Amino acid sequence: MLAVAKIKQAEASVGVIDAPSPTLSPGHVLIQITAAGICGTDMAIYNWAPRMQSRIDVPRILGHEATGKIIGIGSGVQGLEVGDRVSLESHIFCGICHYCRRGDAHLCEHLGYPGISIDGGFAELVSVPAQIARVVPQNIDDNTAAMIEPFGIAVHACMSQRGTAGKTVLVNGCGPIGLMTVAAAKALGARRILAVDPNPIRLALAKEFGADEIVDPTSIDVSTTAKRMTGGYGVEVAIEYSGVPSGLDSVLASLERMADLRLVAGPAHPHALDVNALLRTGLSIYGIHGRRLWQDWDLGVKLLEERKVDLSALADPVLPMSRALEGFEAVNSGRALKPILLNQ
C-alpha cells in the first residue's frame, strides 16, 4: 500500500513508500484512510528535531490527524462497526495508571501516539487501538474531520481554568491551532479577541475567524494594544502559541491582575521569568497538553457539527497522498496553513 514514512534518522528523509498492509490485532480497528493532516509534530519529525530523535524507530509511517472508514474490527472491540466513519484521537492511553484512573488519560504515564510509537495515518490503511477511533457526524467533511484532533487542543485551551466566555482573550501565534483557538473562543462567547502574529495572511484569517483586533508584533507593541482595548487593565486570558521568548514576555505584559496564562507552546530553551512579579499580580499559569478525554473532543465536534465553527479555510494545500512531500515543503517555506493529504 502507499504510505508516507520517516525512512532514515536524518533531516528530511521522509518518503512515499510501498508499505505492507497492516494486520488487524485484538482490540484494534482497521481503517481505510480518506484524509490526513500534516501537523507541527510531523514537521518536527521531518526536520529531525532533537526532541523527536529518541522517540521514532524507522521506518515509521507518520500521521496522527486522520479520518476514514472502518473496514475491519478486531476481537473484543465494542461500540464500533464496519462502515463507521471515524477520526483519530492521538492519545493511546493505558487506562490503568494513576493519571488515567483519576480522569487525566491525556497525561497517561505510558502514552503512545500514531505516527510515533505505532504506524500512523499517512497511508491507505491503518490499524489502531479502537479506543482512539471516534465516530464522526456525516455533515462534517473529510478535510475538517482530519482536523478534529488539533481543534480539540484549541477547545482545551479555551475551556480550561475559567474558560473564555465573557472574557477578553489574547491569542499569541496564529498558526493553524492558534487560528482554531480564535474561532473556538468566538464560538464559546469571548467578549473581545486580540490575535497576534507577524504573518499578514494569518492575521487576515484571524479577523475572518472572529478576532476583534489583530497585531503584527514586529511593528506594534502587543501590551499597548491589549491595554487600550481593555480600558488600561490588560486581557483576562492569554493563550500562548508562538514559542518565542519575546512573545511570551509580551503576553505577560498584556495581562491584567488575576488573569489566566495558558501555555500551549514554550521557548525551545529555558527562559527566565520574574516570579515575584507573578506573585504580585496573582496570575494563574496552566499548561495545555493535547485534549482532555473526551470532553474537549466532543465539544469540538459539536461546534463543527452545529456550524458554530468553520475550519474549511485552513485546509491548504490539499494534495493526494502521493504528493505528500510537497505538503512538508510548503510548511517549511511558509506557504501552507494545514496541508491535507487525500487517498484518492
Give a structural overview.
Strands 3, 5, 6, 7, 8, 15 and 16 form a seven-stranded mixed beta sheet that branches. Strands 11-10-9-12-13-14 form a six-stranded parallel beta sheet, with helices on both faces. It has a three-stranded antiparallel beta sheet with strand order 2-1-4, with no helix packed on it. The chain has eleven helices and 16 strands. By secondary structure, it is of the alpha/beta class. The chain starts with a strand and ends with a strand.
Query: DSSP helix count?
Result: 11
Strand content: 25-35%
Q: How many β-strands, per DSSP?
A: 16
Order of helices and strands: EEEHEEEHEEHHEHEHEHEHEHEHEHE
Stated plainly, the CATH topology of the largest domain is called Quinone Oxidoreductase, Chain A, domain 1
Q: CATH superfamily of the largest domain, please? A: Medium-chain alcohol dehydrogenases, catalytic domain
Biggest sheet statistics: 7 strands, mixed
State Rg. 20 Å
Q: How many discrete structural domains?
A: 2
Query: Which class of the largest domain in CATH terms?
Result: Alpha Beta
Poorly predicted residue ranges: none
- Give the N-terminus to C-terminus distance in angstroms: 13 Å
Shape: globular
- Whole-number mean pLDDT: 96
Helix/strand-derived category reads alpha/beta
Helix content: 25-40%
